[in-house]
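SAMPLE LOG
Freezer: B-3
Tube label: C17
Construct: single chain, 90 aa
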Amino acid sequence: MACIGDADPFTAAIPATKVELTVSCRNLLDRDTFSKSDPICVLYTQGIANREWREFGRTEVIDNTLNPDFVRKFILDYFFEERQNLRFDL
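STRUCTURE (predicted):
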């Protein structure tokens, strides 16, 4: 993890901090035939150099709901003044 208070700008790492993301959804489409959908959220991050999407993590599956409030949180490094693309697939 980067240190924000490094004195030497030539050896200092990019300033970063941890962020915690919580996911919830409302009014999802019902894709199940005989019951309500069982949603899960998959978070992908995009690499800077190769621009490929990599799976970062998954939430738990919540049975029979169209309005999930996922318990699992994603904890990411946030780099200041750097674009970080995220993709959430449900």
